[in-house]
Amino acid sequence: MMHYSTDHHPIPTMIENLDHENFFPGRCILINGPVIVGAGPSGLAVGAGLKQQGVPFVILERDNCIASLWQNHTYDRLKLHLPKQFCQLPYFPFPDNFPEYPTKYQFLDYLESYARNFDINPQFNENVLSATYDETCGLWRVKTIGNTDNGFSRGEVEYICRWLVVATGENAEKVVPEFEGLEEFGGQVMHVCDYKSGETYRGKRVLVVGCGNSGMEVSLDLCHHNAIPSMVVRSSQVHVLPREILGKSTFDIAVSMMKFFPLWVVDKILLAVARVVLGNIEKYGLKRPSKGPLQLKNTEGKTPVLDIGALQKIRSGEIKVVPGIKRFSPGRVELVNGENLEINSVILATGYCSNVPSWLKENEFFCRNGIPKSSFPNGWKGKAGLYAVGFTRRGLSGASLDAIKIANDIGRIWKEETKHKQHSVTVGGCQRRCKSHC
Fold first, then answer.
1. Which of 150, 146, 152 shows the shortest CA–CA distance to 129?
2. Count of CB atoms within 10 A of residue 150's CB?
3. Nearest in space to 61 (alpha carbons), one of 159, 140, 132
4. Sign of the CA dihedral 51, 166, 87, 250?
5. Partner of 412 at 20 to 30 A CA spacing, among 4, 14, 151, 286?
6. Strands 27-30 and 424-425, bridge-based pairing
7. The dihedral of CA 30, 144, 123, 73: what is its sign?
């Protein structure tokens, strides 16, 4: 029998394997509450909500810090693309003295304060190998391998829990396309997740592959450091919008308009205003897609570029827009239009993807690409205690909305079951194989 606690901290219960043939041979921990996979903003937001509900939980994080994507894989000049009111997490606003568009360092300070405020202490260096729902037990079995900061293995552990919250998000792994001849190129090739600053690229010819917000901002940063960037627009289709219109956030304006107009009308208004503010961008090789920016974001998850200065550099010729890549050769790249460029380095601003299919053994809730099959606002809850947060394609505001729903849903069930005098749940079929040491 497993007893619940209403304390704010999880009470792991060590259980040993009695059947070495049919059960996990390593160390097992039975968790009095949900396991949250991922200590990014989404996972922290769910944790904060559960704290508010008095529900114990464990957060498993493969890296050695919270928000590792922001900590370790973002460039120095990065700022939040949207105003801070759309990026704050539940129950804890940004400090009043933060600017409208906080820097990445300010955002990281905010996340550290958030974790301290809610006393959230993830278990770091715990890489999830698999998560499987055991119908016999009615519980989730989450297998991990732990590592120390110096790389030594702490061995495998299996966490057993009733609820599993997938908080690894849409951007867990970098996407690295294959290009003919890239291995023969000979120059430096890196993904944008490893790019920090253009300081080391002074005077160098750099090919930036990708024209999203990262590609645009890295190209702009390279200009500021006197490098010579060429930016590949592979599909020749990208929506570029001004970050602000008459001093007000374009995103804020769009959100306000959607209260009164259908999405397609808002798209038409945004594009008309963008044409007035930015001019005709198609003559620079930036052809707009047929779908409007908001429709494209909702249906395909493609975020419009919010211009912070790259477009002016494109107009002046400091950033050269080029078509797709045909092949690489030593020190050169041939483009699909037959043009050849001499280049020293390549930066792949080719985006990120979900890694959920690599470890979650479930095929009903998530698509093959690791995104929930049901779109926002219905993609937060699956069956058998499975939840997902950070997959809305609506940034931090969408993740916050789902985090609140998840915490409230788990909290409701928790309170219903713990209001009885005997706060217990039977581990079911697992009792045949596991012995509790509590």
1. 146
2. 5
3. 159
4. negative
5. 14
6. unpaired
7. negative
